[in-house]
Specification:
Layout (H helix, E strand, L loop, with lengths): L2 E6 L7 H15 L3 E6 L11 H5 L12 H8 L3 E7 L7 H10 L6 E4 L2 E4 L6 E7 L4 H6 L3 H14 L3 E7 L7 H17 L1
Helix pairs in contact: 1-7
The protein binds flavin mononucleotide.
Flavin mononucleotide (FMN) binds next to helix 1.
Amino acid sequence: MTRALVVFAHPCEESFSAALRACVMDRLTARGWEVDLLDLYAEGFDPVLSAAERRGYLDSATNTAPVQGYVDRLRAAQVLVFVFPVWNFGFPAILKGYFDRVFLPGVSFRLENGLVAANLTHIRKLVAVTSYGATPLRAFMAGNPPRKMFTRIIRFICRPDRLRYLALYDMNRATDAQRAAFLAKVGGEMDRL
Ligand SMILES: Cc1cc2nc3c(=O)[nH]c(=O)nc-3n(C[C@H](O)[C@H](O)[C@H](O)COP(=O)(O)O)c2cc1C
């Protein structure tokens, strides 16, 4: 059975991000997929990489121990969906910390002669669902780092058959109708994923 891991990074249940998470969960579950929700705030994920983890970072025999449960959930998935708001043209710190602590050598990539090789190739579908306060032009002028992280960096370590970066820009001025249209778009994308 297809198993999806949905990584969610927002502290507030009333947020638009929470509505997007609910939409993703409902539509993927309706497909008969097994869907594992990793709600980073609700689970109290600690995003801080410790000194001991940094020192043991490269040792793939032992580096997963502090985050073994999170690594197991990542390894069990064939579909990976991230739902988060864009903060300071990047990820909320808790999500950045997830990448720092869980996307380890031997997990997300391998080092071969000092060069990065893909190691998340069991992930066949990779999706980001996000929103920005900024307009598309302002995000473009800022270099749009979260978009590049997915379309260039995470894509490289997963090599998915399907990659979708689904973003609602200009949230500060978005009408209810525009938000509803984006939710409908995300729902349709989950149906077709
Ligand atoms: C701490 C913080 C930093 C933010 N930084 C940015 C930013 O750099 N660029 C941007 O487009 N929007 C930024 N925003 C706006 C958020 O993207 C916007 O509030 C969010 O997409 C709305 O969704 P939500 O209801 O799920 O919070 C920021 C918001 C917060 C709270």
